[in-house]
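Weekly modeling sync, notes
Attendees: S.R. (lead), two postdocs, one rotation student

Agenda item 3: backlog of single-chain predictions. S.R. asked that every request posted to the team notebook include the full sequence so nobody has to chase files. The rotation student volunteered to paste the first one in as an example of the format we agreed on. Action items at the bottom.

Example entry:
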Amino acid sequence: MKRRVILFALHSERGDADDATLYQLDALRPLAARLIVIVEPSLTAEDLAAVAARSDEIVHHEGIATGSAAYRVALDADDVASYDEVLFTGNGWFGPIGSFDEVLARMAASNAGVWRLIETTDRAPEVFPMEGFPRALTPWTWTVVRADVVSSPAWREYWAVSRDDSEDAFAEALIAQGVSGSAAFPATLGPRGNPGILAPGALLDAGCPVLLRTVFAQFPPLLDRFAVLVRPIVTEMGRRGYPVELLWRAVVRTTPPAALNALGAMLEILPDAVPAASHRSEDEAPLRVVVLAHVPHLGFVDELADRLRQIPGEFDLIITTTDGRKAAKLKSRLRTSAQAWARNAEVRVTWVPGGRDMGALLIGCRDILLSDRYDVIVRVHGREPRRKTLNIREYGRRYQLENLLSSPGYVQRIFDLFRREPGLGMVFPPIVHIGYGTMGRGWGAYREPAEDLAGELGIAVPFDEVSPLAPYGGMWIGRPSALRLFAEHNWTVGDYHRSRRVRWVELTRVQERLLGLAAAEAGFHCRTVMNREHAQISHTALEFKLDELSTTIRGYPVEQIHLLRRAGWTGYGGVVALTRMYINLNHPRIAAATQPLYRAARNAGLMAKRVLAAVRNEHQDDGSDR
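Predicted structure, as returned to the notebook:
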């Protein structure tokens, strides 16, 4: 085997070395006579120790370890001239997918002085900073330089100048000096000369042993434009032996949750039939399940009983309600009902004015969220939206309950998801769009207070720009450990008091929108789930609406979205709004100069609406019976 020195640059947005990176180092170790890891100042002491245990030398770089300047630090610290080849790489990829052996053997037979694993000729890949997807920074993927090049004038000339080049610029600089170059997987494998991002499936089919992390940093409609399907790629990675839970655990804390849900196609449409075989092995204990049901009015009791019948196996039940009279009636119903409600049942009074079901959960059931008594929590409630028509209220309730507790077979399949995926934190229905105007404004007035609250809770996962991935309506199934960050905060009744509601714009709705982000911060991904009936209803309605919305805008959806985002808020299409949109599109400098004035006026209007909404809701959503 060739005597190879590997220079591995470790870049982390979060200041850590995730398990996928440690897995990389373990896989590279047998290939190296010497493994040198370049680390950034932000790397924690614990992770530094884990990396050091897997390497021969640690080199500290004061900047971001993504360009040639980082590798220059390693070259200055160690003499690489005595090795057969130098491999420049880093934690910008997931792998190995299968083995490196075939690629290494094939390239060893070439006469290239420098070769790249994946060639890229796309010098300006498309980015979407307005949509929350700026240019992603990652270390070099994989470039090998042979010993004769290391001793050549071209090598000395390149490193004689201080620079911080990309991987492709480095290889091409050597080739321009007469070094022979090659690539294991040429740029022609993908559109725009960028197969690593725009044709990862073709690379995998061609035998490429890595998947670039930057795939998960792309604007989802861009990958949609090129029919890049991440879900089957990840499935194939698992089939070839890569532990895909490491991948999800790595990207869930750096990719906005709704974007990750779209990139990974993380919607599960589940049948109602009982699965032929559960994912539980014979010696594995059944999941310990607790249902936390908020019952603000007794009219919900019969529907709750019907939904609980859909849960297979034993479970405990904790019912929260708003006053002692209702609690006494609920206890009586539990005692006299012919239906076996649960293995153990308990009623708690948790009156949190303005707290709705979230206050009852975080204050009244805090002990459950913080304990290790249960593997899975099923969260349901009987709260109904006000100021909605009967049809919308009926559909909204059915949409949530039936997409979580459709049938015993359906619920069993959800439980099997939790058994199969240890990194799965929560499941809930997708964002509702029939009868509700939530799509396109899921954050609404809650974005700024959500950012404030996320800062208090220590949530650093990037926010989705448009709508968060969240259980709108507050019903979900999840692991207690995925929500521990929320539960550890000592919420009080005073947090929900009307005097704070102008600040939070109703704290409960802000909390609801942060649940998916809290799970991601803890390292858990979320999935959305639907039964087949609701998937049929939802998809056909969504398809027709999207078709109508696209009729007056040219191009692919990625181009349509980018155009509309540049134009900005349409309002009601009046003269002021249309003039502002025209200026945004055609005179961006003028738009930038006037934007602060417009933003100040708009924020003043939003604040006035918040104050009026707080006054209007002062005696609503307090959990009282209607």
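Discussion: group reviewed the output briefly. Residues 618-626 have pLDDT under 50 and may be disordered.
Action items: rotation student to repeat for the remaining queue; S.R. to check formatting next week.
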